[in-house]
Design a protein that fits this description.
The structure holds two protein chains of two kinds. By secondary structure, chain A is of the alpha/beta class. Chain A folds into three domains: 132 residues, HypD, alpha/beta domain 1 (Rossmann fold, 3-Layer(aba) Sandwich); 117 residues, HypD, alpha/beta domain 2 (Rossmann fold, 3-Layer(aba) Sandwich); 43 residues, no CATH class. Chain A has 14 helices and 13 strands. In chain A, the strands form four sheets. Chain A has a five-stranded parallel sheet. Chain A is globular and about 65 Å long. By secondary structure, chain B is an alpha+beta fold. Helix content of chain B is 31%, strand content 26%. In chain B, a hairpin with a 5-residue loop joins strand 13 and strand 14. Chain B is globular. Classes of the chains: A alpha/beta, B alpha+beta. Chains A and B meet through helix 1 and helix 14 of A and helix 1, helix 7, strand 13 and strand 14 of B.
Chain lengths: 378, 330
Amino acid sequence: MTMRFVDEFRDPAVITRTCEEIRRLADPARHYRIMEVCGGHTHAIYRFGLKDLLPPNLELIHGPGCPVCVLPMGRIDDGLLLAQDPDVIFTAFGDMMRVPGTQGSPLEHKAKGVDVRIVYSPTDALKLARANPTKRVLFFAIGFETTAPSTALTLMRAKAEGIRNFSVFCNHVTIIPAIRAILDSPDMRLDAFIGPGHVSTVIGCRPYEWIARDEHRPIVIAGFEPLDLLQSVVMLLRQLKDGRAAVENQYTRVVPWEGNRAALRAMAEVFELRPYFEWRGLGFISQSALRIREEYAAWDTEKVFQVPGVRVTDPKAAQCGEVLKGVLRPVQCKLFGRECTPERPVGALMVSSEGSCAAYYNYEHRKATSPRRIEAPV
Amino acid sequence: MAHGAGGKATRRLIDGLFVPLLFDQPPEHLGDAAHVAMDGTRVALTTDCFVVTPLAFPGGSIGELAVNGTVNDLAVSGARATALVATFVLEAGLPAAVLEAEVRAMGRAAVAAGVRVVGGDTKVVEHGKLDRLYITTSGIGSVLPGVTLAPGAVRPGDKVLLSGPIGDHGITILLARGELDLEASLRSDTRSVFPLVEAIVSAAAPALRWMRDPTRGGVATALNELALDCGLGIHLFEDRIPVRDEVRGACELLGLDPLHIANEGQFLAVVAAEYANRALDALRAAPGGAEAALIGEIREEPAATVLGTTPYGGTRVIDMLVGDPLPRIC
């Protein structure tokens, strides 16, 4: 039994033909700068070695679409401070576990005896709350619009069942303001975008129309298999060749043009936009993040607990912000591979499964001839 | 916790603490078993500790791991296991039926592996001081004639063989913990690999450079250790690595790489190119070796690195495991 959709989109013969099409379409006199917004795409590009297959005048620039990476350290500190209470069970996706706060990562706190647990969905966290009535379960919610609906549905269920020992520390952010901030940034010159696949299953393709209409950049919503990404590059090159700029959907098997109405309704029921939110690397962006509505205040960690609201600036030497914006490539950050490695990360980009530094470090940077590396002592 | 995961942190702990403080002289290389000269002969000696949770899972239990794990460490060092001793550390309150089941499982596994259990020790600690049952086994064996294994013997052009599909054990354990809403008909692959080792030794002893059983940290970690020890590059043909659909599916869903998942019934071997096909045929002809595959080759570059290549030409570095996605696998 073959895995549906995975095998077809990794077919070597089709991939080879698609790469030939890319080489045919790419104008050798141009230098193309295409940003893939989504961290999952960055990861896939490195994981499947796709950069090796693209012509040298086509540069892929990594965007800020990693919801863990863009979270300022202060928010992690806030969450972990609340976790110190022995009555609190701190829950989060596995991706959060090694992200450093100023006092260590969730995993490091767990090793010291703080009750930190990995969950694979917010409903797992709600299950923990039901099973542990004397404890207060805190779900550290992260993600773009991809994960916000399931957080919303979980809050609706908590309210409906009257589960009072459960709350969500909401760090959901929205993708469009991030793209806008990139385009507004004077450092960037971009020709086109590979649009996020999973966010778009929720929000659909319409929210990107301004990118084509007002900013005259083509954007193709892409899937995550090698062929998805390569086909998307073909579609972008065709637009650029024709001088067109439009929103196109390559990921039609998963992304509906109008988005997921039920998911959007759930989000609207539970969340509203914060007036502004601080993004690592991009600064304060208005209307860019979600908070829990007043009707769900009893399940909002920021209302139920006293959240300190720590503001922490990144270490001076770390260049997380520039890497997030795509101004620097991971290897250009002074700390990359030296003070900052996946085992001892300075910033989240080096540990998150969607962080561009992690993707580059894990899959790429030792490809060139390298002397035997000396491991630092314990 | 990362220091027990079998990856980078474990290696640093060994290299940085245990080796300098315990070894009177640093060994040429740290293999799965030590070969010690005694009274004019060489014996192989190894020890291993088993802390898996849950204690029993589809395909096996801690008792079987305790026997097979140690037999396999001896096997991949080129030795036939002769005898085992076992230590049981029990949590007070452990039901007698649970202990009995594990002891029976060990007995059965020992018979199947052709090894004798000749002694042991038991300790009980207070309730809450450990999780039900830990078992340590130490094994002694006789080195097979004609076998000398060392990372330093590996040469560019050598081939990398794998005895069978990877990831079965680790994913089985993960699913058996019941924390995920995932089901699959998977079983741990725990077994003695000695019959397969014997087959490859018979076919290719003079050309056999190195063997390892990829337990915690998986194939990626084992090969990275080899790459670091021999300084050469290891190129893996990713489409030739045998992985069951269920394992692949579970890994895709959870964001795990099968190359990092523990195995308890497989081994890797590096063989000189001229003997590779002979060795592969011998593995495939041996009982339980039908899915053996030639998965890669050794090259000069990139030095000390494991590289994965896809059938369409893309490459990626395959690194050692960092941290611990699945604690207490074995």
